[in-house]
Amino acid sequence: MTRAKLHIVTMFAGLMVWAGGVDAQQRGPVGSVGLSFVAAKPVGDLATLVDNGFGIEIWGGAPMAANGHLRMRVDLGVVVYGYERLSYCDFTCRLSSDVTTTNSILYGSVGPEIVLARGDIEPYVHAGAGLSHFVTSSNLDDNDGYGPYLETTNYSDTVFGWRYGGGVRVRAGGRTFIDLGVEKVDNQVANYLTEDDMVDQPDGSVLLYPNRSDADLMSFRVGVSFALR
To answer: What dihedral angle (degrees, nearest 10) is formed by the CA atoms of 145, 146, 150, 152?
Structure first.
């Protein structure tokens, strides 16, 4: 573990101790679930090869202390950073089909969340460990109105990563909050494809030119969450 990550772990350990001694502004343990829109910005080596990505994230937090300040948080999400659509037809173009190729990152993590204050405005910090699955897949749609019916995975790689960040939840009414947050994702070195790394050959085969680099991201979230008792 690097010195910077050790510092982050130490900081969260201190926050856990502090949270355990803070009097609750509301009685009883409180958990949360949420859904967010995500904008992801690649950093470092990844930024030279990959454009910004967009996706969705769902998460849930289960209380670990009676005052509701300490929670165990689970995040699941997907970010699409590349998209290509090719159309084909027969010699009269009376029959047509589309092949769509998507470059995505599916991710999940688990770790502590510290709610620094409870009430109408709830700032929080969190950290977690998990996996990021880089995958490029293609599907075929013959435009018959029933959606794609064939799908294949062209290339994939799964790596371990650390996630840490924070945000603020602002009460919109009752148990509903507007949730704004930012995260840093430190992934291990990953193998992945971009939009230009699949080349179709005249004989129908496909050549792949995978990249290998650090795969770190900054992600920005805006969404809605709901307090649970």
So the answer is: 90
Q: Rounded to 5 degrees, what angle do the CA atoms 106, 3, 212 make?
A: 40
Per-residue pLDDT tens for 77-91?
Answer: 999 999 888 777 655
Place of tokens 């799964």: 158
CB 159 within 8 A of CB 130: no
What is the CA angle 186-189-192, rounded to 5?
110
Give CA–CA dist 145/30, Å, rounded: 45
Q: What span, in angstroms and rounded, lies between the C-alpha atoms of 128 and 150?
A: 35
Q: Which domains are present in the chain?
A: 32-228 (2.40.160.20)
Bridging pattern class, strands 211-213 and 190-192:
antiparallel
Task: Say how far apart CA 182 and CA 179 lie, in whole Å.
Answer: 10
For residue 161, give the amino acid letter.
G
To the question of pTM greater than 0.70 for the whole model, the response is yes
